[in-house]
Amino acid sequence: MAGNAWRSAVSRVVGAFKNATPQSRTFTRGMQTVTLIPGDGIGPEISVAVMKIFEAAKAPIQWEERNVTAIKGPGGKWMIPPDAKESMDKNKIGLKGPLKTPIAAGHPSMNLLLRKTFDLYANVRPCVSIEGYKTPYTDVNLVTIRENTEGEYSGIEHVIVDGVVQSIKLITEQASQRIAEYAFEYARNNQRASVTAVHKANIMRMSDGLFLRKCREAAEKHRDVKFTEMYLDTVCLNMVQDPTQFDVLVMPNLYGDILSDLCAGLIGGLGVTPSGNIGANGVAIFESVHGTAPDIAGKDMANPTALLLSAVMMLRHMGLHGHAKKIEAACFDTIRDEKVRTKDLGGNSKCSEFTDAICQRVRDMN
Amino acid sequence: MDIAPIRWEERNVTAIKGPGGRWMIPPDAKESMDRSKIGLKGPLKTPIAAGHPSMNLLLRKTFDLYANVRPCISIEGYKTPYTDVNLVTIRENTEGEYSGIEHVIVDGVVQSIKLITENASRRIAEYAFEYARNNQRSSVTAVHKANIMRMSDGLFLRKCREVAENYKDVKFTEMYLDTVCLNMVQDPTQFDVLVMPNLYGDILSDLCAGLIGGLGVTPSGNIGANGVAIFESVHGTAPDIAGMDLANPTALLLSAVMMLRHMGLHDYGNKIQTACFDTIRDKKVLTKDLGGNSKCSEFTADICRRVQDLD
After folding, report:
1. Which Pfam family, just one, is annotated for this protein (chain B) (predicted)?
2. The CATH number of the domain where B59 resides is what?
């Protein structure tokens, strides 16, 4: 028994070394601790589903659960609980379920707070068509990379005179350079052939012009990745006619907000779309982007696919491609098989049944 | 034989420099539009580095074309992933993110200013509800991001709500732009008339054109002050096929149908639209971009024949 445990521990470490990419520098020493934020509503139950599946897959992940609520720190500034921050700073990698949006709670949204706390500058959504979950499109396989700190969402607005309001869009060289470089690195690390900068520099010559310039500069340093540029309206026009022409798309904040949701719609909506937020200092938080679904919370009806696929994204980010592939295949196979599916996917199975079906497939693949 | 009661007055539009050095459209074109009020326009080439603004911008400024209207209806026989699209995008076309006001704040930091005014927002909202009423549309949805841009989109939304109060016969809803896009590609049938500020309109109108097959089949109308309205195809000039009898006139034809409806000539509008859709559905005489190999003149002759048969 000890011999088997020792061998499997060694092979896990050796496997991790083999899968190691230059980015996974700290992830090659066996079990890796990840901060888990289950969230509200269906958050806890889909988190349990993910943990079960990871265990079945023998993924070398240890979960450190933390809650995230807005609290007032010294000096009256809103912040996340210190133990949550400390956990994320230590582990660097996090997985997060949906958080409820407080209405008139007097504090900013939790997502905004997390974004500011960890400087989550890139929102990344891979959109891949799921066989067995029918949409008007069958071959979507693209990634939207959205600059998430500035642009149209700077929040700077003024009343100029009565009846005239201005809203300021800020584009900086640094943020544009950072997101562009991330997009090309992502393309390289994930064997994507091209990066397309999405913009409206014909209209917003200075701001989008600056963004575009930084993308072109980053492209020069990544000649192995093809670089193209396209107007946002042209992207939308073409996206709904033939999404297969797109690969990695990088863009400023508002355009990313729109396009990432548009692309999620192409593959079936927020219930099946993974998402990752990349921050400074190596922090990365992966999350499902659907809501808390309070009407079905606690009833074993939720669909854990979005959180699971986000966790798969997380594994890939950590260089654990073998485990990622296995879990993703088990998930897609279960959906394609159409026998055990949650209600939103067109079936009438429970969340636990769907989860167990995936666990079984994962174990069969071990 | 019943002929559409339209007389055409042809004018060219190029940018010329007027007294005082300001760019303008030729005086005879302006005079013609001011007199007739209604215009139909084909594609204009965009001059690169010609030193003058785009022709479309010039036309927009000259006639204060504040509303861009695009009805998007699925065309039976022209296959896209969607079959039942039937919506209208109404885009505010004078302000918003396209004010063109930008500054370098410090080295490496640029700001771009989005302007929203009470007047422009009220005017486009009123147009949207009037349009809905005149065209028997049941609802108007304001598309916005007022959760993020509280003051600017908030002002736009407020004016829409105020106007909605005067049109209780039309249902009014509000939806975030990202939610609209997410839902649009999953089920476009849930949408009817959509009204929104400039940039969102730029995006959504092209997205919706894509749903029905692209700019080659999408009609468009621009509503201006003083009763002026210019209807136009929004595709390009296609220089590679120009003069070869290969072009598809559908977009311009459907824009002309929009024009007839705007003028109250609904019977003629319906007749011509039906003939056009029937020709496409029949699939016997289609231009290359529609999947066939007929000439423009053959496609046109087929529609003419059907129109005459409908008399």
Report:
1. Iso_dh
2. 3.40.718.10
